[in-house]
Amino acid sequence: MNVRTRASAQSAIAPAVIIRPIQPDHLNDVRYIHATAFRSQAQSVYAPKELDAFETMVRTPGYVDKLMSDSLLGGWLGRELIATAAWHKAETNPDVSRITALYVRPLFERIAIGSKMLQAIETAAATAGCHLASVRAPINAQKFFQSMGYEMSGRGTRPLGQGIVINVVFMRKVIDAENIIDFATYAS
Q1: Fewer Cβ within 10 Å of end Cβ, the chain: N or C?
Q2: pLDDT at residue 8 greater than cutoff 90
């Protein structure tokens, strides 16, 4: 897709995405989006066994239970779920929000939907009283979060199960209720 075509797609699709909470009957779609988006975006960074371990983790009941305990939002294009984003307040500091899942279906990557989803959860977190957003990002997502104003605060690993861990970066950004974006398409 050339720059002109991508800009046209971005201007047409991203504004049409409606953001609203995800209900349990869409969890199979959530799993599909997470598994395919991670494989698509991370295949140049992680080994095949790490990609497979992530997909296996996504298919576990514990993964979905964790997502449902977070504030889980979906990006909808018509009746189709095309993106997800989740966050919760940090257990140790209620002023800090933890971004736990931000994924966009591969067909809809790089047309500002991830940015829109991230801004929606930052808005929700700031409205809930958080002043700092943090994320444990896969290595492949570091540039995206930097482009959204996040700074790296450290490096670490994320266990995926089966004795497999992946390298991640810890990132954070100051957020506040005065500088949040009001989304006319955000439905609570």
Answers
A1: C
A2: no
